[in-house]
Amino acid sequence: MKKRHFLSAILLGSALCGLCAQEAGQGGISPEMLKQIQSTYKGTPSDKAIRNAIARNSMKSLALNQENQGGLDTHFSVRVLSKGITDQKQSGRCWLFTGLNVMRAKAMAKYGMPVFEFSQTYPFFWDQLEKANLFLQGVIDTGDKSMNDQTVEWLFRHPLSDGGTFTGVADIVGKYGLVPSEVMPDTYSSENTAMMSNLIGLKLKEFGLQLRDMVAQKATQADLQAAKTQMLGTVYRMLALNLGVPPTEFDFVRRDASGNPVATEHHTPRSFFEKYGDPSLLTDYMMFMNDPTREYYKCYEIDYDRHRYDGHNWRYLNLPLDDIKQMAIASLRDSTMMYFSSDVTQLDLKRGLLDIDNYDYASLMGTTFGMDKAQRIRTFASGSAHAMTLMAVDLDEQGKPRKWMVENSWGADAGYKGHLIMTDRWFDEYMFRLVVETRYVPEKLRKLFEQEPVRLPAWDPMFAPEQ
C-alpha cells in the first residue's frame, strides 16, 4: 500500500511538472525552435530530386537496393517436399493455415495422396465461436472491475480476432476435429474476414456491456451463464450465415498417387482428425521463442493468449537463436516441417526474398534506422506478425545455415512459387517463434519446460496474434 501511495505521488508530481512547463510556454515548438528545425532542410538538388521521385513513386520501390538484386539462390541442402500452396486470401488465418499445413504434409506422405487439403473454414468457425465465449466469460470474470482497468480495457479492445497461434490450432482441432476442404469449403467471408469480424466484434462489445450491468446488479452465476449462452446463439447464427453450418458427419474418398479412388470412408470430424490429423498436437510439441528483451532458458506464459476459455495459454521457452536453429535443422533433416512465425519486414515479394539488405531507406531518407531486435520489440516496431511453415535450410561445409525457406499461405503466385526464402542474417533479426516436435528437443531443454512459467500480460508488445 505504501508503494502504491509513493508511486501515485510520483505520477502526480510528474503531471504537475508537465502543467507548469505548459503554463511557462515550455515543451512546445516555439518560433525560434521552428526556425532551427527548418534550417536543417537545405533543399539541395539531391533533395529536390528525391522529392520529385517520392511524389510519383512508392518509397519502397525507390529504396529497393539494386546492389542486392542478383540472381536468387534457390538451392537447399536440406528440404522437405511440399505439395500445393494454400491461400489465406484477405484474412488473418496464417496461424491456422500453417498448423494445418504441417499436418497435411504428414497425411499426404503417410497415405500417398497427390492432392489433399484440410478445410480451414471448419476450424475457423469454431475458433471464432470459442473466442467469442472467451471474451464474454472474461467480461463476467472482470465484471467488478472498472472500465479503466487494463485487463477490462484490453478485452473490449480485442473482443474477436481472426489471428492466432499454434496453441489455438491444437486447442480448436483437438476439441472439434477436422474435415477435408471439399466438405466445408471457403466462403467470401472466410477469405475476406474484416466485415464479419467487425460486425461480430461490435455485437460482442454490446453484449459485454449488458453482462457488466448484470454483474453490477448482483446477478447470479446461473443467470449470467444463461445470458451468455443466448448471446453465443446470436454469434453462432452470424457465423453460420457467413461461413456455413459445420458438418457433423460426411463421406471422404481417398485417392492414391495416380488420383484413383482407393477407399470411401464415413467420418465424423473427430474420427477424421484422429486418422488424418495429428492427435498429439499438445503432448508432443514444444514452443520456443527468441525474445532478447527477456531472460533466456526461462518459461513464459501470456494471459488470455488462448483460443478457448478452457484451453491453453501460449506457453514457451525463451532461447538463444543457436539453440532454436539446432532443433530446426534436426527436424528438417528428418523430413519434418515446423510451425514458424516472424516479422515479414524487408520482404521483396516479387522475388520472395527476406533479407536485411533488400531496401536502403537510409540513403533515400538521409538518416539511419539503427534499433536492434530488442529495441524494436520494446517500442512495438517489430513482432511475430505472420506464421508460415518452415521446410528447408541450406547449410555450409561446417553445418551452419546460409538461408532458410518457408511454405507460405499467400497463394502460388506470391513470392518464389508460393514460398519465401530468408537469409540467415534476416532470420537472426526477425525470427520469433518455432514449434518443434518433442523428439527433436534436447533433454536439457525439455526439463526446463517443467519450471513454473513467468506470467505476462495480454498487452505485452510481443504477443499480438499472428495474421
Instruction: Compute the average pLDDT.
Output: 92
Which percent band covers the strand fraction? 5-15%
Ends: how far apart? 41 Å
The count of domains is 2
* CATH class type of the largest domain: Alpha Beta
Content-based structural category: alpha+beta
* CATH superfamily label of the largest domain: Cysteine proteinases
Number of helices: 17
Shape: globular
Radius of gyration: 25 Å
CATH architecture annotation name of the largest domain = Alpha-Beta Complex
Q: Largest sheet, described in full? A: 12 strands, mixed
Low-confidence stretches are 1-11
Percent in helix: 40-55%
CATH topology of the largest domain: Cathepsin B, Chain A
Strand tally: 14
Architecture overview:
This protein is an alpha+beta fold. It is 43% helix and 15% strand. The chain has two domains: 164 residues, Cathepsin B, Chain A (Alpha-Beta Complex); 178 residues, Cysteine proteinases (Cathepsin B, Chain A), CATH 3.90.70. Strands 1, 4, 5, 6, 7, 8, 9, 10, 11, 12, 13 and 14 form a twelve-stranded mixed β-sheet that branches. A hairpin with a 5-residue loop joins strand 10 and strand 11.
Name its key features.
467 residues, alpha+beta, Cathepsin B, Chain A, 2 domains, twelve-stranded mixed β-sheet, 17 helices, 15% strand
Helix-strand layout with pairing:
Layout: H1 2-23, H2 31-39, H3 45-56, H4 59-63, E1 78-79, H5 94-111, H6 121-141, H7 150-157, H8 166-176, H9 188-191, H10 194-216, H11 221-243, E2 250-255, E3 261-267, H12 269-276, E4 285-289, E5 298-302, E6 315-318, H13 321-333, E7 338-342, E8 347-348, E9 353-354, H14 361-365, H15 373-378, E10 386-395, E11 401-407, E12 419-423, H16 424-430, E13 431-437, H17 443-448, E14 454-456
Parallel strand pairs: 4-6, 5-14, 9-12
Antiparallel strand pairs: 1-10, 2-3, 4-13, 5-6, 7-10, 7-13, 8-9, 10-11, 11-12
